[in-house]
Amino acid sequence: MKWSKSLIQTLRDNPQDAEIDSHKLLMRAGLARKVAGGLYAYLPLGMRSLKKIQQIVREEMDRAGALEIVSPVLQPAELWRTTGRWDTMGPNMFKLRDRGEHEFALGPTAEEVFTDIAKGLISSYRQLPVTIYQIQWKFRDETRPRFGLMRSKEFLMKDAYSFDTDAEGADRSYWNMYRAYERIYARCGLKAVPVQADGGDMGDSMTHEFHVLADAGEDGIAFCDGCGYAANLEKAERRAAPCADAGCPAFEEVATPDARTIEEVAAFLKLPADRFVKSLVYVADGRPVMVCVPGDRDVNDVKLKRLLGAKSVALADFETVLKATGANAGFVGPVKPADAALRVVADVSLKGATGRIVGANKEGYHLKDVDLARDTKLSDADFADLVVVQAGDVCPKCGKPMVIKRGIEVGQVFKLGTKYSAAFNATYKNDKLEEHVMIMGCYGVGVSRTLQAVIEQSHDKDGIIWPAAVAPYQVCICLLDPAEPEVAKVADELESALEARGIDVIVDDRAERPGVKFKDADLIGFTVRVVVGAKGLANGGVEIKRRDEDKSKTRVVAPADAPAAIAEALA
Ligand code: ATP
Ligand code: MG
Fold first, then answer.
1. What are 467-499's pLDDT values in tens digits?
2. What is the pTM of this model?
3. Which residue puts its alpha carbon closest to atom 3 of ligand 1?
4. Ligand 1 in contact with 409 (CB < 6 A)?
5. For the chain, what is the domain count?
6. Which atom of ligand 1 is nearest to the CA of 149?
């Protein structure tokens, strides 16, 4: 490919809305163009990398024995009503009607469609296990589309669904996909780590997310270097001992005018935040409940849901807080709330806590010297691990302190059990001709997010550094004197020789200064750069340098030896 015919357009400036490096580079290198917020066109260079990632995903799915199909983006409402998700998916799902007023969704995922397809195709245990997949565009009306392809409204996803006769089979299918994912990311040149994740409304169901670690990641992940425990902060647990506080005198009221937040009250009373109990009123499945955690910690909603056995939890509104406690948020606490029947739960680290400061359930006042066992209704069953894990918290597996890192979720594997198959009555007949519901798993790879995650993980101040397997072109041949017949001839021969080896090449034949060409080659980040110029040829050859090497590593080789040297540099 000749650069002059490639429609490549690099940009000098970062786009205004780009906050993270990979988004800036994606746009500046001319890989994609924004059409509207959260909607992107993939330009020729971006398209090439996207196709390469798709191909790796496809090959590894096929190798794992999965069967490729493609299902419509437009999905009828009836399928979503079968599982109830037409109503529970919320505003993230794009809904529309056809001219006959039939309702449809633009598929945000495809469990319903695939379960329905499998129900139609599968009748006997002889057909199982089976995994079907597609690589198809997905649509989500994200609250905050941002970071370019990382969180867009339309994105390319590989989604696979496994169908099994029993739990052991479903387990095998799960790990089969898990291992395929490890191969996919490794082949893309990505370091992606599997971490335990929360099963959402599937409760304790097994699921792993694959994360690319990066400061720009939207998810927090707890890691233990001691035993390898890794979990998304939504899920991460900690080992926390009850406290062994000494007794304290009877509690008394202290005036804390205008001090509502823990920081404000702590500053006012000149005491550290962990002496305080942060009390928050939530509504769990329609009923108020007070949640107490140490003043310097945050409530983990997922853990709260689990303790309460609730379907949904959310912070209560102003009126609910007032009615339940007798005060406004900021002054509420577990001692004698207005609603004597209010359920109070607390983080396990507050068990045995004495001498604490809590809201007095009275505007402008707190209570000091509170002994939670003595002064509240909290019983043993009301204590659980309820906070978001922080750095230094103790690993639940081995007891070593954990660290927190940021990650970009590039994929997820999930055991679904019979949630979807039962709703659709997707059954098979066993060898005794008895009917059973199939056991399912689902497995997603964010193909377009993966593209940008590669950039986030592999770049420097000058631009992208593409791993060879997913580079838009693996090699860029920069012609220093494109008008010189000898230079053009050597470049053409080299291009053909590389293509014959299956290496894709772009030849920068533009009438630009070398500095411009080198800058563009570095910005786009082709894995290997080859410089062909009249002076170099006169002095013995062409210059070869990998993008991830500095100038001092440049080697000069005779044109005839260049193809082998380049292939070696790519390997
Ligand atoms: P997130 O938590 O980031 O919103 P998710 O867990 O809702 O993602 P899944 O339903 O697991 O997403 O979808 C499978 C994969 O699709 C994700 O692992 C991610 O890589 C990708 N993905 C999800 N939402 C988006 C999006 N808005 N833009 C780009 N890729 C996405
Ligand atoms: Mg996910």
1. 999 999 999 999 998 899 999 999 999 999 999
2. 0.94
3. 409
4. yes
5. 3
6. 29
